[in-house]
Amino acid sequence: MKRAYTAGTLVDATLVADWLDSNGVPCEIFHQNAVGALGELPVTPPEVWVRRDADLSLALRLVGEVVFVDEDGEQQCQQCGEESPRGFDICWQCQTALRS
After folding, report:
1. Which of 29, 74, 76, 93 has the greatest CB tally within 10 Å of its CB?
2. Are 60 and 13 within one domain?
3. Structural domain of residue 80, as residue ranges?
4. Considering Cα of 33, then 63, then 26, then 55, what sign does the dihedral take?
5. How confident is residue 100, by pLDDT bands cut at 50, 70 and 90?
6. What pLDDT score does 8 carry?
């Protein structure tokens, strides 16, 4: 087994593992239960490992295709100038579409 990805969160590790599995690369998530023990154990982030060493290069390529969108921050409405959270699709003030 070889490590293909070290995740920031268990959710990210699960998304990557599901992506790899759906593309024919069997894998396992390690340290998934260590997240709940923060403060008691050393911090060990979740890791995705491929079961077959020969799949590592394919897994790394597939991991590179995964895009994690950072929805933090704000965006300005072009219609009214109001700031809305970046995750919003329409302006909360005037209901104008914020994304095309």
Report:
1. 29
2. yes
3. 71-100
4. negative
5. very low
6. 82
Task: Determine how many CB atoms are found less than 10 A away from the CB of residue 78.
Answer: 10
DSSP notation for the chain: -EEEEE-SSHHHHHHHHHHHHHTT--EEEESSSGGGGBTTB-----EEEESSGGGHHHHHHHHHH-------SEEE-TTT--EEETT-SB-TTT--B---
**Tally of domains within the chain:** 2
Q: Tell me which amino acid residue 54 is.
A: A
Q: What is the dihedral of CA 61, 64, 66, 69, to 10 degrees?
A: 180
- 51 and 12 housed in the same domain: yes
pLDDT at 61 over 50: yes
pTM: 0.63
